[in-house]
Amino acid sequence: MTKRFLSTLSILLVALACFAEGRAKYVFYFIGDGMGVNQVNAAETYLGALEGRIGITELCFPSFPYFGLINTQSATNGVTDSAAGGTALASGNKTKNGALGVLKDLTTPVTCIAHWAKDAGAAVGITTSVSIDHATPAAFFSHVPKRGMTYEIGAQLPSSGFDFFGGSDFVKPDNPEGGPDLYAQAKAAGYTIARGYKDYLKKAKKADKMILFQTEEASKRERNSIPYALDRTKDDLTLQDITRAAINFLTKQKKDGFFLMVEGGKIDWACHANDPAFISELIDMDNAVKVAYEFYQQHPDETLIVITADHETGGLVLGRGPYELNLKAVSYQRMSMDKLNRELNAMKEKLGEGFTWEEGKKFLTENFGFWDGVKLNDDQSERLERSFNEFKEGKADAGRVCSTVKHLISECALIGWQSGGHSNGYVPAFAIGVGAEQFHGRFDNTEICKKMAKAAGWKTPHEE
Predict the structure, then answer these.
(1) What integer pLDDT is reported at residue 404 of this predicted model?
(2) Is 1 part of any domain?
(3) Judging by beta carbons within 10 Å of its beta carbon (0-12, 13-18, 19+), is residue 121 exposed, middle or buried?
(4) Do 436 and 402 sit in the same domain of this protein?
(5) Cα–Cα distances in Å, from 115 out to 91, 265, 459?
(6) At what angle are helices 378-392 and 357-368 packed, to 10 degrees?
(7) Are strands 312-313 and 422-423 parallel, antiparallel or unpaired?
(8) pLDDT at 6
(9) Is 96:108 a contact under the CB 8 Å cutoff?
(10) Same-domain check for residues 387 and 441
(11) Are residues 303 and 376 in the same domain?
C-alpha cells in the first residue's frame, strides 16, 4: 500500500466514524443565570423534603448522563458579571465585566455560536424569561462596551437576522433620536411581533421571522421580565411557552436544524435578593428543559441539550451551623419579595388606620406560613413585628418588611447567603445527546460553545 492510499483510507475511516456517530442537528443551550451547584442541589433537596424525607428528588436536567464543573472568572475580574459571563458562554472569548460581544478592548467585536449556526444554514432562536435586551440574551446578538446600553442593544436585534426571539419585552423601545421605535425597526426588518402565546399561535404560520413578547398589559405592569413562577397567573407568558413556541417556529424554517438558547433569568434575580423564590425559578427552568427533552426523545440521534450557568449568585450555603436542613419551610412561600413589596404598599393604602399588626400578621401567616407551618421564636417574631411597625409608621419602606421576611424564611430553612452579588463558585454543566460526552470533567466557560459547535459540525473562528 502506498502512503497516499493509507492517507486516503484514514480520511475515509474518520469520515465514516463521524457519520456513524451522527451530528447534533438540533442544539439546545439552556443558561440558568446565577445557577450554582448549590442552587441545583437546593431545588432537588427541597423536592425531597416535600415528600417527607432526607435526600433529593431528581429534576430532569440534573439527571442527564454527563456532568461538568465550570470556571467562570472574566478577563478582568475574579468574579464575573452576566455580560462578561454571557459573552464567554456565547463566543468562547473572555471580556471585561459589563461588556457584551466584544473583547476586553471594548471595541473588537466577536461572533458567537448563534452566528456560527446561522452561517452553517441552521435556524436560530434566542430566548429568555427577562427582557430580550438583558445581558445574557444580548451576548448572543449585540456588540456594545456597556450592558446598560439597552436601546443600542435592542437596535442591533433586527440586523442579526436570527429567526426567533422570545422574552418579556424591550426595556427601552423608544428611539432617543425621535425616529422609529424598536418595534417598528423590527417589523421593517421582517419580524412579526406576537404578544402572548395565543397571539403567537395566530401569527406564526404567516411569519418569516418572529418575536414573542408578553402581552402589552403584562408589560405595563413589569416590562423587565415575565413574572416569577410564584407570582404567575394563568394568563402570563411562561418560559415553557417561549421554549415550545421557539421549537415550533424553528422546526418549520426548512433549514439545516436549529440552535436555540433559553435563559432562566430570574434564578439570578431571586438570588441577588436572597429570596428563596429562586427554588421555584429553577424548577420552572427545568420544566422548560422538559419541553426540549420531549423533542430529544423524538430525535435522539440528532439532538444535543446542554444546561449551564454564567455564574453563581448569592454565595448560597445549605446549612447554617446545625447539621440539619428544613427546606420544607420554603413551600409556605406564596409570592416573591417583589410581589410582597407591592402587596404591602397596596394594603397600607387600602386599609389606612386599619393597617394594624394583627392584619399584617394574618397576611404573613397566609402567604408565608409564619407561626403556622413555619415556627418563629420570640426574637424572630419581634423582628418581624418591628419591621412592620416601622413601615406602618413611615419610618421605613415596605422593603424593610420584605428584608425581614426573606431572612426569616432562610433562617427557618437553615440556608445561608454570603452576599447579594455574584461569586466565583463553580457552576455546573449537564448534557445529553449527540456530543454530550464532551461535557464531562472540569473546564472553562469559554469551552462550552466550542464543544457544542464541534458536536454540530459548525465552523468557529477559533478553528481558523
Answers:
(1) 98
(2) no
(3) exposed
(4) no
(5) 9, 22, 10
(6) 120
(7) antiparallel
(8) 38
(9) no
(10) no
(11) no
Question: Is position 159 within any domain?
Answer: yes
CB distance 168 to 214 below 8 Å: yes
Q: Quick one: which of 281, 255, 290 has its CA closest to 128?
A: 281
* Same-domain pairing of 401 and 425: no
Query: Is 9 inside a domain boundary?
Result: no
- Domain harbouring 430, CATH code: 3.40.720.10
Give the cell for residue 120. Answer: 452553517
- How far is it, in rounded angstroms, from Cα 70 to Cα 278? 21
- Please, are residues 114 and 123 in contact by the beta-carbon 8 Å criterion? no
Q: Please tell me the predicted confidence (pLDDT) of residue 21.
A: 60
Determine the Cα–Cα distance for residues 413 and 409; give it in Å rounded to an integer: 6
CA torsion sign, 87 to 92 to 95 to 97?
Answer: positive
Say if residue 299 is in the same domain as residue 383.
no
DSSP sequence for 110-125 = ---HHHHHHHTT-EEE
**What is the maximum span of the chain, computed from C-alpha positions, in angstroms?**
98
Structural domain count of the chain: 2
All cell numbers assigned to 300: 435522539
Range of the domain at 371: 326-413
Whether 264 and 345 map to the same domain: the answer is no
DSSP-assigned beta bridge partners for residue 323: none
d(CA 182, CA 321): 51
Q: Report whether 304 contacts 456 (CB < 8 A).
A: yes
Nearest by Cα to 101 from 70, 146, 62: 146
CA–chain centroid gap for 148, Å, is 18
Question: CA-to-CA distance for 234 and 232, rounded, in angstroms?
Answer: 7
Mark the ranges of the chain whose per-residue pLDDT is less than 70: 1-21, 464
Question: Does the residue 15 lie in any domain?
Answer: no
CB 53 within 8 Å of CB 463 = no
Long-range contacts, stretch 390-393, CB < 8 angstroms, 24+ apart: 391/344, 391/348, 392/348, 392/355, 392/356, 392/357, 392/360
User: Cα(147)–Cα(158) distance, rounded to whole angstroms?
Assistant: 18
> How far is it, in rounded angstroms, from Cα 287 to Cα 39?
16
Q: Would you say 314 and 420 are in contact if contact means Cβ atoms under 8 Å apart?
A: yes
447 and 345, same domain (yes or no): no
In whole angstroms, give the CA distance from residue 112 to residue 123.
14
Residue 166 sits in the same domain as residue 184: yes
In 10 A of CB 159, how many CB atoms? 11
Sole residue written with cell 435578593: 273
